[in-house]
Write a structure and sequence with these properties.
By secondary structure, the chain is mostly helical. The protein is 33% helix and 0% strand. Helix 1 packs antiparallel against helix 2.
Length: 92
C-alpha cells in the first residue's frame, strides 16, 4: 500500500465567512436567583443566542409568561392568614 494521498482524497474545510447579521450569543451574565422555577425561565433567554432577531419575540413572550406564572404561584402559596377584625371592633 502506498501512503501517498491523491488529490481526490484531500478534503479542504473552508472557514465560515463572518456574517455580522448572523445570530450570535450576547454573553449577558445571568445571576441565579435561588428560585429554580425563575432560574429555569431566565436560562431560556439563552435560546435567543441562536435565533434570528425575529425569533426572539416568541422566546421573550414565553419567558415572560413563565415568570408571571412563577410570581402568581408565590401569591397563591399558603402563608399566615390575613389579620381579621375582632367582631367588637369599630369599623374603620
Amino acid at each position: 500500500m502506498s501512503e501517498s494521498v491523491s488529490e481526490a482524497e484531500i478534503v479542504t474545510v473552508a472557514e465560515p465567512e463572518y456574517d455580522p447579521a448572523a445570530p450570535a450569543p450576547l454573553n449577558v451574565p445571568r445571576t441565579p436567583t435561588g428560585n429554580a422555577e425563575v432560574d429555569d425561565q431566565l436560562d431560556r433567554l439563552a435560546d435567543t443566542d441562536h435565533l434570528a432577531t425575529d425569533g426572539h419575540v416568541e422566546v421573550y413572550e414565553d419567558v415572560h409568561r413563565g415568570l408571571r406564572d412563577a410570581l402568581t404561584a408565590l401569591d397563591a402559596r399558603p402563608g399566615s392568614p390575613a389579620p381579621t377584625r375582632h367582631p367588637t371592633a369599630a369599623p374603620q
